[in-house]
Amino acid sequence: MPSLTEYLTSIGSETHDASYVDDTGTIRIITKDERLAREVWKRALGYEENVDNGNGSMTHRVYPPDARAQTFIFERREGKVVTAPEPDRTGNLLDNVSDVARHNANSMARKAVDDSDNPTT
């Protein structure tokens, strides 16, 4: 029985449903692997798009560069092992740092209280 990696490799080499228009204006067929790579690059660099609101009007959206996609590309190109992304957490980086600092401070306080309750002298 083939492994998951073998299936992913096989499926990735299949033709993607959408075609690609290169810089010269030539339309060409691409594989699913190439489509995925182009999506990662697009997200890494940031992009803009016009989205149909469904009522005949369009909204212009700007997506800033994604640091995770940049790190993914950099690490792949450097030959580093790329791990699965962590699930999105609510809050921003400062909130996460604050939570870690609060946890560490609480742990130190608990340890100090425990140590004062059980002196070793």
Overview of this protein structure:
- Helices cover 49% and strands 20% of the residues.
- With 121 residues, the chain is of the alpha+beta class.
- The protein has 2 domains: 4-88, no CATH class; 89-121.
- Strands 1-2 form a two-stranded antiparallel sheet. A two-stranded antiparallel ribbon has the order 3-4.
- Strand 1 and strand 2 (27-31) form a beta hairpin.
- Helix 2 (32-45) packs across helix 3.
- The longest helix has 25 residues, at 93-117.
Tally of separate domains: 2
Proportion in β-strands: 15-25%
The N- and C-terminal alpha carbons lie at a distance of 65 Å
Note the total helix count. Answer: 4
Map the helices and strands.
Blueprint: H1 4-12, E1 15-21, E2 27-31, H2 32-45, E3 47-52, E4 58-63, H3 67-77, H4 93-117
Antiparallel strand pairs: 1-2, 3-4
Helix pairs in contact: 2-3
